[in-house]
Amino acid sequence: MVESKTIATQPYYDQKPGTSGLRKRVKIFQQKYYTENFIQSVMHAIEGGSQGATLVVGGDGRYYLDQVMQIIIQFSVAAGIKKLIVPQHGLVSTPAGSHLIRKYKATGGILLTASHNPGGADKDFGIKYNVRNGGPAPENVTNKIFDISKSLEQLHYADLPHVDYSQIGTQTIGTMEVQVIDGVDDYVDLMKEIFDFEAIRYFLQENKDTFKLLFDGMHGVTGIYGQRLFVQEFGLAKEKSLMRAKPLPDFGGEHPDPNLTYAHELVERVEKEQIDFGAASDGDGDRNMVLGKNAFVTPSDSVAVIAHYAREAIPYFRKNGVNGLARSMPTSRALDLVAQKQQLEHFEVPTGWKFFGNLMDAGRCSICGEESFGTGSDHVREKDGVWAILAWLSIVVHVNKTKPGTSIYDILQDHYKIYGRNFFTRYDYEEVESKKATELIQHLQDLSIVGQTFDGFTVSDVDDFEYRDPIDGSVSSHQGIRIMFKDGSRIVVRLSGTGSQGATIRLYIEKYSNNPSEYAMETHKALGPLIQVALDISRLKSFTGRDKPTVIT
Ligand code: G6P
Ligand code: ZN
Q1: In this structure, which residue's CA is closest to atom 9 in ligand 1?
Q2: Where is the Alpha-D-phosphohexomutase alpha/beta/alpha domain (predicted)?
Q3: Which one of 81, 315, 508, 541 has the fewest CB atoms closer than 10 angstroms to its CB?
Q4: Which of 63, 61, 115, 53 is nearest to 87 (CA)?
Q5: Backbone Cα Rg of the chain
Q6: How far apart are CA 92 and CA 470, in angstroms?
Q7: Nearest-CA neighbor of 228 among 258, 183, 282, 266?
């Protein structure tokens, strides 16, 4: 008989989960009962009650995982949870967790990750609650968790010895079952349903000596998926095709975010070793980056190219069709052009993956993407880094059937030949004083420049993006300032919703060209004049004092 204890606690008032859960420094989670309070609040907020519920629990392997796993087990027993499904060693990527919730028809899941933020005793941890559809908890649920946390007085938990979840099998603790499963199996099975593994394997084996593939797990959770897919399934040599594939609690001291800045080691190797297919995923496996010889696939182009080839190159879409496409507002409009050509419904939603979920549940969106290195489909309710990488690999395999030797560079150029090219870049200004950032947005909201011409670019419209969800009718206002130009170019300015210090201003610049002689141009050259226009119109320097962005992607 396992007995539950009840003890008194005091509420914390800062436990409001964002779309990506509660994300804070490890030190914050280590405060007395801080983590316990939050887990207790989650238990109280479970839709339909915690009694008899089934939860999937695991994370990206970052520092503090085991301590929080133990707390979740103790509190779950006391809350009357029927079953916890735990991937072995507690390791599961965010998209694979989403799949487990859906596949096992769980009530929800608790994912322990701070995504691409660094890990370690002085770095970040996160607790994210996902609901029955496999997606992040919607606002009514996160608000409920927050409300409960602010008036929490008691903690209920079972005082248990340390629970081991390193072995596959089922243990019973009181009235609760803890089922430890292989965290990779189910995900790989899903990928096998979606992609043509035979064709990928055949291509990689046939071209063993000429086609070089390198996957960078960034010491996050996807190393275990990379190992299974690229080595076991596709038969590539581990030493040559995987790097940083071992999950580490501190991600090797690096920032596990796949972009040109933080995945520089991969970028350098691709260039130096003339790698044909380079790819990386972030700490918890929902972001991705794909690159090849002389070719970097921008996330905005990535989703457009995947959508273009979906039905031809990916069995899942051949079978289910493509019901619609969607992108976040700042993402370039390359995807819209594919939607128009294929006569598909397409949506422009605010930044945040949750906006795609409603569309997917309603069967109106099959493929979607964001400029922030997120790409995915309706196979789960999270963006999926490994899926995006396999989608690109499938496209390479597909085009090489008819045109051997077609590279990632060629695939991009061929795409531009059909649709034209949407040059795109993003400038981030991090840790700007919040007041200054707000003043800048205010200035942009008040602009009256329609009809004016700046260095040849004539403004056709300015607005503050507002989205009405076509499924539930909810309205999200003030999602970013859009300055549109007559030639189809666009400047977007918005404040990041994920920064942890001060405000982060994001400036997005997009220029469309259907002049073939420009398709091979370097992005910063093609966008140079428009970037200057953006800086002039926004008066960014005078508002913030910054003459350079912190990061360019
Ligand atoms: C997270 C979200 C994405 C979002 C990204 C950047 O990864 O899941 O949906 O695009 O953060 O958001 P931000 O508000 O910082 O631009
Ligand atoms: Zn992530």
Answers
A1: 352
A2: 15-154, 186-291, 302-417
A3: 541
A4: 61
A5: 23
A6: 32
A7: 183
The reply to whether 105 and 32 lie within a common domain is: yes
> Is the pTM above the cut of 0.90?
yes
**CATH code of the domain in which 453 resides:** 3.30.310.50
Q: What is the 3-state secondary structure (H, E, C) of 219-264?
A: CCCCHHHHHHHHHHHCCCCHHHHEECCCCCCCHHHCCCCCCCCCCH
Q: Are residues 383 and 500 in the same domain?
A: no
Helices vs. strands in the chain: H and E counts, helices first? 19, 27
From the candidates 41, 76, 98, 115, give the one annotated as an active-site residue. Answer: 115
Looking at residues 464-490, what average pLDDT do you find?
Answer: 92
Residue 78 phi, psi (nearest 5): -65, -30
Last residue of a domain, one of 382, 400, 419: 419
Rounded CA gap, 87 and 109, in Å? 12
Question: Do residues 301 and 260 both lie within one domain?
Answer: yes
Domain boundary among 351, 386, 419: 419
Quick one: pLDDT at residue 19?
A: 72
ipTM of this model? Answer: 0.95
Q: Counting Cβ atoms within 10 Å, is residue 306 exposed (0-12), middle (13-18) or buried (19+)?
A: buried
Number of domains making up the chain? 3
Q: Ligand 2 centre and the CA of 288: distance in Å?
A: 9
Alpha carbon of 398 to ligand 1 centroid (Å)? 31
Report the DSSP beta bridge partners of residue 506: 428, 494
pLDDT at 497: 79
105: exposed, middle or buried (Cβ count in 10 Å: 0-12, 13-18, 19+):
exposed
CATH number at residue 120: 3.40.120.10
Tokens for 229? Answer: 């897919």
Mean pLDDT of 189-209: 97
Q: Do residues 178 and 245 both lie within one domain?
A: no
DSSP letters for 303-332: HHHHHHHHHHH-HHHHHH----EEEETTS-
* pLDDT (mean) for 426-433: 91
Residues 194 and 262 both lie in one domain: yes
**Which residues 6+ apart lie within 8 Å of 24 measured at CB?**
124, 125, 126
Same domain, 282 and 307: yes
> Measured between alpha carbons, how far is 432 from 415 in angstroms, rounded to an integer?
38
Which pair of structure tokens corresponds to residue 454?
A: 């700046």
Same domain, residue pair 168 and 241: no
Which ligand has an atom closest to residue 479 CA?
A: 1
93 has catalytic annotation: no
Range of the domain at 97: 4-183
**Residues 6+ positions from 542 with CB-CB distance below 8 Å:** none
Mean pLDDT, to the nearest integer, of 157-185? 96
| Cα–ligand 2 centroid distance for 374 (angstroms) | 8
